[in-house]
Amino acid sequence: MRWLEGKTGWALLALVALLFPLFAQNNYLISVATQTFIMAIAALGLNLITGYTGQFNLAHGAFMAVGAYTVGILTVDHQVPFWIAFLLAGCVTALLGYFVGLLSLRLKGHYFSIFTLCVSYIMFLLIEKWESLTHGPVGIMGIPAPTGIGPLQFGTPLSQYYLVLAFLVLGIWIMARIVRSLLGRSFMAVRNSDELAEALGIDLMRTKTLSFVLSVVYAGFAGALYAGQVRFLGPDLASEVVTFDLVMFVLVGGVGTLLGPLVGTVLVTYLTQSLQFLQDYRMVVFGPLLIALIIFMPDGLVGTWLKRRARRADAQASAAKDAAGATATPIAPAKEGRSHA
């Protein structure tokens, strides 16, 4: 399985994603895959603040709605070109995330999570009630698809699939650079212990706020892509259900792993689509499966695999060390018996 690790494994995943439309039976499956990749981008952001920094943000889905509504409002009501609105969606989400982070990150543990859940509900109410800005319960209709870039056009499900895939690859690459850098090590130090991080000279508030802003920027751009792909927005996008779905994706794949959010999003989406024939009863099957996974594999699929691989490597290293020690130990010569004359 070592050939699946590192760049080879990522290249194989990219190849599978590139070839998927060739085997998809219809545009519906391609659209489902596109939305799956969009949710994976948002899940990557949630994993940064929760998995790498240890702050359980329950307003993540609401920030995704902020990015989506920014694109919808600017393009439909003010005729702003899509890509300008797309960039502004990231800026608006980052600015809002900065101020929410300054307030919420003064709290720790469950208090932080409860506060962000309240923030999420407030944002949902604003989207639902502020009709002059967000169109209220009616939602925003007629959002334009992403405009073409040179010869590239994005008006078809296939072209949007590859557009979102390109953003997913870019998001994973940037996230890998972040978590493997000194900044990423600072995030993990905060996750392990605030006291330890402070002893190492890390500014706790600045580090947590930066992680929070970076994570919600991922959610904002995911929401912007969602708006351009679905073309319709409603207040439900800001509900806590979206956040809980993202949390489920991260938990199933593996918290604090780079591959986990992607694996969790794809696997859960595939299972829910496969169980659609059960209609309202599909959660009767899916629910126990999810509970069993969390009980027996609390680190998620990728996290469990990484831990088992690490234990196997340690066992092999210990065995090799013992074997080398036994080989290097000289054998004491046998004592000669006394000779009798």
User: What is the tally of helical segments?
Assistant: 14
Instruction: Give the helix proportion (percent range).
Output: over 70%
Which class do the helix and strand fractions yield? mainly alpha
User: Could you give the distance between the termini?
Assistant: 68 Å
What is the radius of gyration?
A: 25 Å
Keywords: Cell membrane, Membrane, Transmembrane, Transmembrane helix
Pfam family, one: BPD_transp_2
Transmembrane segments: 34-51, 58-76, 82-103, 110-127, 161-179, 209-227, 247-271, 283-306
Organism: Variovorax guangxiensis
Q: Main attributes?
A:
341 residues, mainly alpha, two-stranded antiparallel ribbon, 14 helices, 2 strands, disordered C terminus
What is the fold's blueprint, element by element?
Layout: H1 6-23, H2 27-52, H3 60-77, H4 82-104, H5 110-129, H6 131-134, E1 140-141, H7 157-179, H8 182-192, H9 194-199, H10 204-230, E2 232-233, H11 240-253, H12 260-274, H13 282-296, H14 300-328
Antiparallel strand pairs: 1-2
Helix pairs in contact: 1-7, 2-7, 2-10, 2-11, 2-12, 3-4, 3-5, 3-10, 4-10, 8-10, 11-12, 11-14
Overview in brief:
Residues 321-334 have a biased composition (Low complexity). The longest helix has 29 residues, at 300-328. The protein is globular.
Written overview of the protein:
- It is a single chain.
- The chain has 341 residues and is mostly helical.
- The protein has a domain at 14-239.
- The chain contains 14 helices and 2 strands, in the order ααααααβααααβαααα.
- The termini are far apart.
